[in-house]
Design a protein that fits this description.
Ribosomal_Su5_D2-typ_SF; P-loop_NTPase; alpha/beta; 502 residues; YifB family Mg chelatase-like AAA ATPase; 4-stranded mixed beta sheet; 5-stranded parallel beta sheet; Ribosomal Protein S5, domain 2
Length: 502
Protein backbone atom coordinates (compact mmCIF):
# COMPACT_ATOMS: atom_id res chain seq x y z
CA UNK A 1 0.00 0.00 0.00
CA UNK A 2 1.70 3.27 -1.17
CA UNK A 3 2.30 5.76 1.64
CA UNK A 4 3.84 9.24 1.37
CA UNK A 5 4.92 11.80 3.96
CA UNK A 6 5.58 15.55 4.09
CA UNK A 7 5.88 18.10 6.87
CA UNK A 8 4.43 21.52 7.58
CA UNK A 9 3.87 23.79 10.60
CA UNK A 10 0.76 24.83 12.55
CA UNK A 11 1.04 28.26 14.17
CA UNK A 12 -1.00 29.23 17.23
CA UNK A 13 -0.33 32.74 18.45
CA UNK A 14 3.38 33.13 17.67
CA UNK A 15 4.23 29.54 18.58
CA UNK A 16 4.59 26.88 15.90
CA UNK A 17 4.21 23.12 16.06
CA UNK A 18 5.38 20.66 13.43
CA UNK A 19 2.63 18.79 11.59
CA UNK A 20 3.30 15.50 9.78
CA UNK A 21 1.15 14.88 6.71
CA UNK A 22 0.64 11.30 5.54
CA UNK A 23 -0.91 10.33 2.23
CA UNK A 24 -2.28 6.84 1.63
CA UNK A 25 -3.42 5.64 -1.80
CA UNK A 26 -5.77 2.69 -1.63
CA UNK A 27 -8.27 0.81 -3.73
CA UNK A 28 -11.76 2.13 -4.22
CA UNK A 29 -13.63 4.84 -6.02
CA UNK A 30 -11.55 7.99 -6.68
CA UNK A 31 -11.95 10.27 -3.67
CA UNK A 32 -9.98 12.45 -1.29
CA UNK A 33 -10.54 12.19 2.47
CA UNK A 34 -8.88 14.62 4.87
CA UNK A 35 -8.58 13.78 8.59
CA UNK A 36 -6.89 15.44 11.57
CA UNK A 37 -9.28 18.22 12.71
CA UNK A 38 -9.14 20.39 9.56
CA UNK A 39 -11.15 23.63 9.44
CA UNK A 40 -13.30 24.70 6.48
CA UNK A 41 -10.44 26.32 4.56
CA UNK A 42 -8.35 23.18 4.95
CA UNK A 43 -11.23 20.92 3.93
CA UNK A 44 -11.52 22.90 0.70
CA UNK A 45 -7.84 22.28 0.02
CA UNK A 46 -8.76 18.83 -1.33
CA UNK A 47 -10.05 20.44 -4.52
CA UNK A 48 -7.27 23.03 -4.69
CA UNK A 49 -4.52 20.43 -4.30
CA UNK A 50 -6.02 18.04 -6.86
CA UNK A 51 -6.35 20.76 -9.50
CA UNK A 52 -2.87 22.15 -8.74
CA UNK A 53 -1.27 18.72 -9.22
CA UNK A 54 -3.09 18.09 -12.48
CA UNK A 55 -2.35 21.57 -13.86
CA UNK A 56 1.35 21.19 -12.98
CA UNK A 57 1.75 18.28 -15.39
CA UNK A 58 1.61 15.53 -12.75
CA UNK A 59 -0.87 12.65 -12.55
CA UNK A 60 -3.31 12.47 -9.67
CA UNK A 61 -3.63 8.89 -8.38
CA UNK A 62 -6.58 6.82 -9.55
CA UNK A 63 -8.00 5.53 -6.30
CA UNK A 64 -9.01 6.47 -2.80
CA UNK A 65 -6.61 9.02 -1.25
CA UNK A 66 -6.55 9.50 2.52
CA UNK A 67 -4.66 12.49 3.90
CA UNK A 68 -3.93 12.50 7.64
CA UNK A 69 -2.51 15.43 9.56
CA UNK A 70 -0.94 14.64 12.92
CA UNK A 71 -0.95 15.25 15.81
CA UNK A 72 -4.58 14.40 15.24
CA UNK A 73 -5.79 16.28 18.33
CA UNK A 74 -4.32 19.61 17.18
CA UNK A 75 -6.81 21.77 15.22
CA UNK A 76 -5.48 22.59 11.73
CA UNK A 77 -6.47 26.03 10.45
CA UNK A 78 -5.86 27.74 7.12
CA UNK A 79 -4.32 26.93 3.75
CA UNK A 80 -0.65 26.79 4.77
CA UNK A 81 -0.67 22.97 4.36
CA UNK A 82 -1.60 22.93 0.65
CA UNK A 83 1.94 22.52 -0.69
CA UNK A 84 2.77 19.77 1.79
CA UNK A 85 -0.48 17.94 1.00
CA UNK A 86 0.26 17.95 -2.73
CA UNK A 87 3.84 16.74 -2.29
CA UNK A 88 2.76 14.01 0.14
CA UNK A 89 0.36 12.64 -2.50
CA UNK A 90 3.09 12.74 -5.16
CA UNK A 91 5.44 10.96 -2.74
CA UNK A 92 2.86 8.24 -2.15
CA UNK A 93 2.43 7.87 -5.93
CA UNK A 94 6.19 7.51 -6.38
CA UNK A 95 6.46 10.68 -8.48
CA UNK A 96 9.10 12.35 -6.30
CA UNK A 97 12.06 10.88 -4.41
CA UNK A 98 11.98 10.99 -0.63
CA UNK A 99 15.61 11.98 0.09
CA UNK A 100 15.19 15.77 0.07
CA UNK A 101 11.56 15.59 1.15
CA UNK A 102 12.48 13.83 4.40
CA UNK A 103 14.56 16.86 5.48
CA UNK A 104 12.24 19.64 4.31
CA UNK A 105 9.30 21.57 5.74
CA UNK A 106 6.80 22.88 3.17
CA UNK A 107 4.66 26.00 3.61
CA UNK A 108 2.27 27.67 1.20
CA UNK A 109 -1.18 27.83 -0.34
CA UNK A 110 -1.76 26.45 -3.84
CA UNK A 111 -3.71 28.12 -6.63
CA UNK A 112 -5.60 25.92 -9.08
CA UNK A 113 -2.85 26.37 -11.68
CA UNK A 114 -0.14 25.32 -9.21
CA UNK A 115 1.14 28.74 -8.14
CA UNK A 116 2.33 28.92 -4.53
CA UNK A 117 0.63 31.80 -2.72
CA UNK A 118 1.71 33.67 0.37
CA UNK A 119 0.19 32.83 3.76
CA UNK A 120 0.23 34.53 7.15
CA UNK A 121 2.63 33.44 9.86
CA UNK A 122 5.56 32.34 7.68
CA UNK A 123 8.19 33.80 10.02
CA UNK A 124 7.02 32.06 13.24
CA UNK A 125 6.58 28.85 11.22
CA UNK A 126 10.17 28.98 9.97
CA UNK A 127 11.41 29.72 13.50
CA UNK A 128 9.50 26.68 14.76
CA UNK A 129 11.02 24.50 12.03
CA UNK A 130 14.52 25.68 12.91
CA UNK A 131 13.97 25.10 16.63
CA UNK A 132 12.72 21.58 15.86
CA UNK A 133 15.99 20.78 14.08
CA UNK A 134 14.91 20.81 10.43
CA UNK A 135 17.54 21.75 7.86
CA UNK A 136 15.43 23.15 4.99
CA UNK A 137 12.14 24.97 4.58
CA UNK A 138 10.37 25.85 1.33
CA UNK A 139 8.13 28.93 1.41
CA UNK A 140 6.19 30.98 -1.17
CA UNK A 141 8.47 33.24 -3.20
CA UNK A 142 6.47 36.28 -2.02
CA UNK A 143 7.40 35.46 1.59
CA UNK A 144 11.05 34.64 0.89
CA UNK A 145 12.41 37.91 2.30
CA UNK A 146 10.42 37.40 5.49
CA UNK A 147 11.50 33.77 5.93
CA UNK A 148 15.12 34.65 5.13
CA UNK A 149 15.37 36.62 8.37
CA UNK A 150 15.82 33.34 10.27
CA UNK A 151 19.38 32.05 10.62
CA UNK A 152 20.67 28.47 10.91
CA UNK A 153 18.19 26.98 8.45
CA UNK A 154 18.19 26.81 4.64
CA UNK A 155 15.29 28.86 3.29
CA UNK A 156 14.15 28.40 -0.32
CA UNK A 157 11.37 30.11 -2.25
CA UNK A 158 9.00 28.51 -4.75
CA UNK A 159 6.82 30.23 -7.33
CA UNK A 160 4.79 27.13 -8.21
CA UNK A 161 4.35 23.44 -7.50
CA UNK A 162 6.16 22.48 -10.70
CA UNK A 163 9.35 24.14 -9.44
CA UNK A 164 9.14 22.30 -6.11
CA UNK A 165 8.73 18.95 -7.87
CA UNK A 166 11.72 19.60 -10.12
CA UNK A 167 13.80 20.57 -7.08
CA UNK A 168 12.84 17.39 -5.23
CA UNK A 169 13.88 15.40 -8.28
CA UNK A 170 17.20 17.25 -8.45
CA UNK A 171 16.35 18.78 -11.82
CA UNK A 172 16.17 22.45 -10.84
CA UNK A 173 16.87 25.08 -8.22
CA UNK A 174 14.60 27.14 -6.00
CA UNK A 175 14.96 30.82 -5.15
CA UNK A 176 17.27 31.94 -2.35
CA UNK A 177 16.64 34.96 -0.09
CA UNK A 178 18.40 38.29 -0.46
CA UNK A 179 19.43 39.39 3.03
CA UNK A 180 20.13 43.01 2.02
CA UNK A 181 17.63 45.28 3.77
CA UNK A 182 17.27 49.01 3.08
CA UNK A 183 17.58 51.54 5.88
CA UNK A 184 14.33 53.09 7.06
CA UNK A 185 13.95 56.68 8.28
CA UNK A 186 13.02 57.37 11.90
CA UNK A 187 9.19 57.49 11.98
CA UNK A 188 6.88 60.05 13.51
CA UNK A 189 8.45 63.45 12.78
CA UNK A 190 10.88 65.44 14.89
CA UNK A 191 10.35 66.70 18.42
CA UNK A 192 11.63 70.14 17.45
CA UNK A 193 8.38 70.64 15.55
CA UNK A 194 6.48 70.83 18.86
CA UNK A 195 6.63 74.33 20.30
CA UNK A 196 6.25 75.07 24.01
CA UNK A 197 4.79 72.45 26.39
CA UNK A 198 8.00 71.94 28.35
CA UNK A 199 6.29 69.79 31.00
CA UNK A 200 4.82 67.49 28.38
CA UNK A 201 8.13 67.23 26.52
CA UNK A 202 9.89 66.32 29.77
CA UNK A 203 7.25 63.69 30.52
CA UNK A 204 7.69 62.26 27.02
CA UNK A 205 11.45 61.99 27.60
CA UNK A 206 10.93 60.21 30.93
CA UNK A 207 8.41 57.87 29.31
CA UNK A 208 10.87 57.01 26.54
CA UNK A 209 13.79 56.48 28.93
CA UNK A 210 11.95 54.12 31.27
CA UNK A 211 9.21 52.56 29.14
CA UNK A 212 6.47 54.21 31.23
CA UNK A 213 2.82 54.80 30.33
CA UNK A 214 1.62 58.36 29.77
CA UNK A 215 -1.67 60.30 29.91
CA UNK A 216 -1.96 63.68 28.18
CA UNK A 217 -5.01 65.87 28.76
CA UNK A 218 -5.71 69.30 27.36
CA UNK A 219 -7.86 71.25 24.91
CA UNK A 220 -7.99 70.29 21.21
CA UNK A 221 -5.11 71.40 18.99
CA UNK A 222 -2.62 71.86 21.81
CA UNK A 223 -0.21 69.15 20.58
CA UNK A 224 -1.19 65.91 22.34
CA UNK A 225 -1.19 63.85 19.15
CA UNK A 226 2.00 65.46 17.86
CA UNK A 227 3.83 64.54 21.04
CA UNK A 228 2.57 60.96 21.00
CA UNK A 229 3.57 60.48 17.36
CA UNK A 230 7.12 61.57 18.16
CA UNK A 231 7.61 59.09 21.00
CA UNK A 232 8.81 56.22 18.71
CA UNK A 233 11.51 58.55 17.37
CA UNK A 234 12.94 58.86 20.90
CA UNK A 235 13.13 55.11 21.48
CA UNK A 236 16.26 53.11 20.61
CA UNK A 237 16.09 50.65 17.68
CA UNK A 238 14.91 47.15 18.42
CA UNK A 239 17.52 44.50 19.14
CA UNK A 240 17.82 41.51 16.80
CA UNK A 241 15.71 39.27 19.03
CA UNK A 242 13.10 42.00 19.57
CA UNK A 243 12.91 42.62 15.81
CA UNK A 244 12.18 38.96 15.10
CA UNK A 245 9.62 38.88 17.90
CA UNK A 246 7.78 41.95 16.61
CA UNK A 247 8.04 40.84 12.98
CA UNK A 248 6.54 37.43 13.87
CA UNK A 249 3.49 39.16 15.36
CA UNK A 250 3.00 41.33 12.28
CA UNK A 251 3.47 38.25 10.11
CA UNK A 252 0.52 36.62 11.87
CA UNK A 253 -1.46 39.83 11.38
CA UNK A 254 -0.60 39.86 7.67
CA UNK A 255 0.73 43.44 7.82
CA UNK A 256 4.37 42.97 6.81
CA UNK A 257 5.83 44.98 3.97
CA UNK A 258 7.24 42.98 1.08
CA UNK A 259 10.02 45.53 0.51
CA UNK A 260 11.18 45.63 4.15
CA UNK A 261 9.83 42.65 6.11
CA UNK A 262 12.07 43.08 9.16
CA UNK A 263 10.68 45.58 11.66
CA UNK A 264 13.67 47.32 13.26
CA UNK A 265 11.98 50.42 14.72
CA UNK A 266 9.46 50.39 17.59
CA UNK A 267 5.98 50.14 16.05
CA UNK A 268 3.39 52.88 16.51
CA UNK A 269 -0.22 51.68 16.58
CA UNK A 270 -3.08 54.17 16.86
CA UNK A 271 -6.52 52.54 16.54
CA UNK A 272 -9.63 54.70 16.05
CA UNK A 273 -11.65 55.50 19.14
CA UNK A 274 -14.55 53.45 17.74
CA UNK A 275 -12.49 50.24 17.81
CA UNK A 276 -13.93 47.15 19.49
CA UNK A 277 -12.51 45.11 22.35
CA UNK A 278 -11.80 42.22 19.95
CA UNK A 279 -9.83 44.49 17.61
CA UNK A 280 -7.87 45.79 20.59
CA UNK A 281 -7.11 42.45 22.26
CA UNK A 282 -7.17 40.15 19.23
CA UNK A 283 -9.36 37.27 18.14
CA UNK A 284 -11.65 36.47 15.25
CA UNK A 285 -13.14 33.24 13.98
CA UNK A 286 -10.80 30.31 13.51
CA UNK A 287 -7.21 31.34 14.14
CA UNK A 288 -7.00 34.17 16.68
CA UNK A 289 -5.25 37.13 15.05
CA UNK A 290 -3.20 39.61 17.06
CA UNK A 291 -4.97 42.81 18.07
CA UNK A 292 -3.72 46.37 18.37
CA UNK A 293 -2.07 45.67 21.73
CA UNK A 294 0.08 42.88 20.32
CA UNK A 295 0.90 44.78 17.12
CA UNK A 296 2.24 47.54 19.38
CA UNK A 297 4.57 45.09 21.18
CA UNK A 298 7.96 46.73 21.92
CA UNK A 299 6.49 50.00 20.66
CA UNK A 300 3.76 52.54 21.37
CA UNK A 301 0.00 52.06 21.58
CA UNK A 302 -1.61 55.49 21.22
CA UNK A 303 -5.27 55.89 22.13
CA UNK A 304 -6.40 59.32 21.02
CA UNK A 305 -9.72 60.59 22.39
CA UNK A 306 -9.53 57.82 24.97
CA UNK A 307 -12.60 59.15 26.79
CA UNK A 308 -14.63 58.22 23.68
CA UNK A 309 -13.52 54.58 23.82
CA UNK A 310 -15.86 51.96 25.20
CA UNK A 311 -15.46 50.93 28.82
CA UNK A 312 -14.82 47.29 27.85
CA UNK A 313 -12.04 48.35 25.51
CA UNK A 314 -10.31 50.41 28.19
CA UNK A 315 -10.66 47.76 30.89
CA UNK A 316 -9.19 45.15 28.53
CA UNK A 317 -5.91 47.04 28.82
CA UNK A 318 -5.46 46.30 32.49
CA UNK A 319 -4.08 42.75 32.42
CA UNK A 320 -1.69 43.25 29.45
CA UNK A 321 -0.31 46.41 31.09
CA UNK A 322 0.73 44.30 34.08
CA UNK A 323 1.72 41.02 32.43
CA UNK A 324 2.92 42.07 28.97
CA UNK A 325 0.95 39.28 27.32
CA UNK A 326 -2.46 38.70 25.74
CA UNK A 327 -4.16 35.32 26.15
CA UNK A 328 -7.05 34.62 23.78
CA UNK A 329 -9.08 31.60 24.89
CA UNK A 330 -10.83 29.52 22.24
CA UNK A 331 -12.64 26.21 22.30
CA UNK A 332 -9.56 24.37 21.05
CA UNK A 333 -6.95 26.11 23.19
CA UNK A 334 -5.36 29.41 24.15
CA UNK A 335 -3.41 31.63 21.76
CA UNK A 336 -0.74 33.76 23.42
CA UNK A 337 0.63 36.96 21.94
CA UNK A 338 3.27 39.21 23.53
CA UNK A 339 1.93 42.68 24.36
CA UNK A 340 4.61 44.66 26.19
CA UNK A 341 3.92 48.15 24.87
CA UNK A 342 4.01 51.74 26.05
CA UNK A 343 0.51 53.13 26.42
CA UNK A 344 -0.09 56.78 25.58
CA UNK A 345 -3.57 58.15 26.28
CA UNK A 346 -4.81 61.52 25.06
CA UNK A 347 -8.09 63.15 26.04
CA UNK A 348 -9.88 66.47 26.22
CA UNK A 349 -10.69 67.69 29.74
CA UNK A 350 -14.46 67.72 29.06
CA UNK A 351 -16.98 67.24 26.22
CA UNK A 352 -17.06 70.90 25.12
CA UNK A 353 -13.24 71.17 25.32
CA UNK A 354 -12.77 74.95 25.34
CA UNK A 355 -9.40 76.60 24.89
CA UNK A 356 -9.65 77.98 28.45
CA UNK A 357 -11.14 76.23 31.46
CA UNK A 358 -13.15 79.32 32.43
CA UNK A 359 -15.05 79.07 29.14
CA UNK A 360 -16.33 75.53 29.85
CA UNK A 361 -20.12 75.18 29.60
CA UNK A 362 -20.27 71.55 30.78
CA UNK A 363 -22.14 70.67 33.96
CA UNK A 364 -19.91 69.34 36.77
CA UNK A 365 -21.52 65.90 36.41
CA UNK A 366 -20.77 65.86 32.67
CA UNK A 367 -17.12 66.72 33.27
CA UNK A 368 -16.87 64.01 35.90
CA UNK A 369 -18.55 61.43 33.69
CA UNK A 370 -16.43 62.27 30.64
CA UNK A 371 -13.11 61.09 32.05
CA UNK A 372 -14.84 58.72 34.45
CA UNK A 373 -14.38 55.92 31.90
CA UNK A 374 -10.75 55.89 32.96
CA UNK A 375 -11.29 53.73 36.02
CA UNK A 376 -9.19 53.83 39.15
CA UNK A 377 -7.46 50.48 38.47
CA UNK A 378 -6.55 51.64 34.95
CA UNK A 379 -5.31 55.05 36.10
CA UNK A 380 -3.26 53.32 38.79
CA UNK A 381 -1.25 51.74 35.97
CA UNK A 382 -0.47 55.08 34.30
CA UNK A 383 2.91 56.30 35.52
CA UNK A 384 2.93 59.83 34.08
CA UNK A 385 -0.02 62.22 33.94
CA UNK A 386 0.33 65.63 32.31
CA UNK A 387 -2.21 68.43 31.97
CA UNK A 388 -1.30 70.57 28.96
CA UNK A 389 -2.23 74.26 28.84
CA UNK A 390 -2.27 76.66 25.93
CA UNK A 391 0.03 79.67 25.80
CA UNK A 392 -0.71 82.86 23.90
CA UNK A 393 1.54 83.18 20.88
CA UNK A 394 3.31 79.87 21.59
CA UNK A 395 2.67 78.66 18.04
CA UNK A 396 4.70 81.60 16.69
CA UNK A 397 7.67 81.24 19.03
CA UNK A 398 10.83 81.62 16.93
CA UNK A 399 12.99 79.67 19.38
CA UNK A 400 13.73 76.15 18.08
CA UNK A 401 13.21 73.41 20.66
CA UNK A 402 15.46 70.41 21.14
CA UNK A 403 15.38 67.90 18.31
CA UNK A 404 14.55 64.22 18.62
CA UNK A 405 18.19 63.36 18.01
CA UNK A 406 19.35 65.33 21.06
CA UNK A 407 16.66 63.87 23.32
CA UNK A 408 17.18 60.38 21.91
CA UNK A 409 20.85 60.53 22.92
CA UNK A 410 19.87 61.17 26.55
CA UNK A 411 17.21 58.45 26.38
CA UNK A 412 19.73 55.96 24.96
CA UNK A 413 22.22 56.74 27.75
CA UNK A 414 19.52 56.29 30.41
CA UNK A 415 18.32 53.03 28.88
CA UNK A 416 21.87 51.73 28.73
CA UNK A 417 22.28 52.45 32.44
CA UNK A 418 19.06 50.55 33.19
CA UNK A 419 20.14 47.58 31.07
CA UNK A 420 23.48 47.38 32.87
CA UNK A 421 21.76 47.54 36.26
CA UNK A 422 19.10 44.88 35.56
CA UNK A 423 21.10 42.64 33.18
CA UNK A 424 21.52 39.70 35.54
CA UNK A 425 17.78 39.65 36.21
CA UNK A 426 16.70 39.78 32.56
CA UNK A 427 14.92 43.17 32.61
CA UNK A 428 15.68 45.81 30.01
CA UNK A 429 13.71 48.86 31.22
CA UNK A 430 12.79 50.29 34.61
CA UNK A 431 9.09 49.80 33.87
CA UNK A 432 9.58 45.99 33.78
CA UNK A 433 11.15 45.67 37.24
CA UNK A 434 8.84 43.99 39.79
CA UNK A 435 8.01 45.95 42.90
CA UNK A 436 9.49 43.40 45.29
CA UNK A 437 12.85 43.66 43.52
CA UNK A 438 12.84 47.44 43.94
CA UNK A 439 12.08 47.17 47.65
CA UNK A 440 14.27 44.19 48.59
CA UNK A 441 17.23 44.08 46.21
CA UNK A 442 17.55 47.80 45.41
CA UNK A 443 16.18 49.63 48.48
CA UNK A 444 16.39 53.42 48.62
CA UNK A 445 17.44 55.50 51.65
CA UNK A 446 14.68 56.22 54.15
CA UNK A 447 14.67 59.93 53.46
CA UNK A 448 14.14 59.22 49.73
CA UNK A 449 11.13 56.94 50.20
CA UNK A 450 9.59 59.00 53.01
CA UNK A 451 7.15 60.83 50.65
CA UNK A 452 5.96 57.50 49.22
CA UNK A 453 5.43 56.02 52.67
CA UNK A 454 3.49 59.11 53.73
CA UNK A 455 1.20 58.81 50.69
CA UNK A 456 0.62 55.13 51.45
CA UNK A 457 -0.24 55.79 55.09
CA UNK A 458 -2.94 58.36 54.28
CA UNK A 459 -4.37 56.26 51.44
CA UNK A 460 -3.44 58.63 48.60
CA UNK A 461 -1.62 55.87 46.76
CA UNK A 462 -1.90 52.11 46.36
CA UNK A 463 1.00 49.71 46.77
CA UNK A 464 1.11 49.29 43.00
CA UNK A 465 1.19 53.06 42.58
CA UNK A 466 4.09 53.25 45.02
CA UNK A 467 6.05 50.68 43.02
CA UNK A 468 5.40 52.58 39.81
CA UNK A 469 6.51 55.85 41.40
CA UNK A 470 9.81 54.20 42.41
CA UNK A 471 10.32 52.98 38.85
CA UNK A 472 9.84 56.51 37.53
CA UNK A 473 12.31 57.78 40.17
CA UNK A 474 14.92 55.34 38.87
CA UNK A 475 14.32 56.64 35.34
CA UNK A 476 14.73 60.26 36.42
CA UNK A 477 17.94 59.24 38.19
CA UNK A 478 19.22 57.56 35.01
CA UNK A 479 18.45 60.66 32.94
CA UNK A 480 20.55 62.87 35.22
CA UNK A 481 23.33 60.27 35.35
CA UNK A 482 22.96 59.43 39.04
CA UNK A 483 23.73 56.17 40.81
CA UNK A 484 20.78 56.10 43.24
CA UNK A 485 17.49 58.02 43.24
CA UNK A 486 17.38 60.88 45.70
CA UNK A 487 14.43 62.39 47.59
CA UNK A 488 14.10 64.96 44.79
CA UNK A 489 13.83 62.21 42.16
CA UNK A 490 11.09 60.51 44.17
CA UNK A 491 9.21 63.79 44.63
CA UNK A 492 9.36 64.45 40.89
CA UNK A 493 8.01 60.96 40.25
CA UNK A 494 5.17 61.51 42.74
CA UNK A 495 4.39 64.84 41.10
CA UNK A 496 3.74 63.03 37.82
CA UNK A 497 1.23 60.73 39.52
CA UNK A 498 -0.51 63.12 41.89
CA UNK A 499 -1.03 66.16 39.68
CA UNK A 500 -4.62 66.74 38.60
CA UNK A 501 -4.80 65.31 35.09
CA UNK A 502 -8.51 65.88 34.91
Amino acid sequence: MPLGRANSVAVTGVDGQLVEIEADIGQGLPSVNLVGLPDTALQESRNRVRSAVANSGEKWPDGRVVLALSPATLPKIGSVYDLALAVAVLDAAGSVPAERLAKTVLLGELALDGRVRRVRGVLPAVIAARNAGWSTVVVPAAALAEAGLVDDIEVLGATDLRAVVRWLRGEGMLLEPDVTLPDLPVPGGDLSEVVGQEDARWALEVAAAGGHHLLLTGPPGIGKTMLAQRLPGLLPPLTESESLEVTAIHSMAGSLSGDHPLITAPPFVAPHHSTSATAMVGGGSGSARPGAMSRAHRGVLFLDECAELGTKVLEALRTPLEEGEVRIARRDGVARYPARFQLVLAANPCPCAPARDIDCICAPLARRRYLGKLSGPLMDRIDLRVRMHGGAGAAFDSEVAESSEVVRARVTTARRAAVDRWREYGWTTNAEVPGHALRQKFPLPKDAVAPVEAALRVGRMSARGADRALRVAWTICDLRGGELPTARDVLLALNFRQRDAQ
